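User: Please predict the structure of the protein below. I'd like the answer in structure-token form so I can feed it into my own downstream comparison script.

Assistant: Understood. Taking the following sequence of 354 residues as input:
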Amino acid sequence: MKILINYRISLFILLFFATSSYAYSAPVDCGGGINGTVPDMTINAGLTPSPLNYSGPANKSGYAGAQYSNTWSYFSCNAGFQPQLAYRVWAQADPSLNFDKNGLVTLPLAPGVGLKIMLGIPGTSLFNFKNNSRNYIGQIQPTNSLYITAILPDLSLQFNGISIKSGSYTIPATKLLTVELRDPSDTAGNGNKVSYATLWLKSFTINATTATCTVNSNNLLITFPSITANSTNNVSLGSALFAKNFSINLSCPATNGPNIYTTFTDNINPANFTNILSLDPASSAQGIGVQIKYNNSPIKFGPDSGLPATTNQFLLKSNVNGPTTFNFAAQLIKTGVVSSGDYKATATFTLSYQ
């Protein structure tokens, strides 16, 4: 009869970048009576400011303070003129990119921030890339009887809720998008005439200064004593059959410590937002459940996330300095007719520094 409490350790994936080759017969024509074609182009986008210097809470969401936007990149004909057709535009995020559940590109070596990628063409709203799928962006329309054959990359750093650790992080040059310029008649986007633009993110540096703590009790095993089903006959539903205390120990900065929030997650059913932990499917006992209490109140479970305002996230303590202990209790409660057998439940906890 056990309950296992695990501290969630996030896994960061190192991305490997590879170039892809595209086979096509010819670039698109310039049109408008211009005898020429539209050559491929490369866009090297640099985030501003660079480097990004950040000092503040380790867990945040929203705009991180560095971006590349409002810079149009124009296609031109190799005859020296502006292309003059209502080209159709398709684009795809590079297959090497890894998107998180919020649609941000995970940056190698820089936990805590992700890259938001958007792209626009004249006369359309920005398209937000959230995966590696190929997408139709739209068709270029004339402005004052003139075609402006251009694309508008819009890149921004966003906090992703993962703890940002103090340090200096250099992000390498990264291929982000391949943009296709296609003939107006190529509605399916598979014709044999296409010109390409590749979008690269220039290398940049993030300098971060944050306050976080070290968890000294990552894995906790709590063992309950054996009880008989008969001993629960006179116990009302929802009442505790047994309780056992446990502690989470942290080592925090000596001064200027963070505000610490936490979320406990049901490991068997992460969508469980009640205050009763699910039993492991292999458990044979019935009619019992497990609760975790803090300050004598049952904790409601929530998603495995460090983002501020996560469902059922709560404040442990503000301005935590030095060695700190937080005391909890796990209790076995009656949820129905009790039958004998073994049982196990597992929860994880995620700390958020805000």
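That's the full token string. The chain has two domains: 29-209, 212-353.
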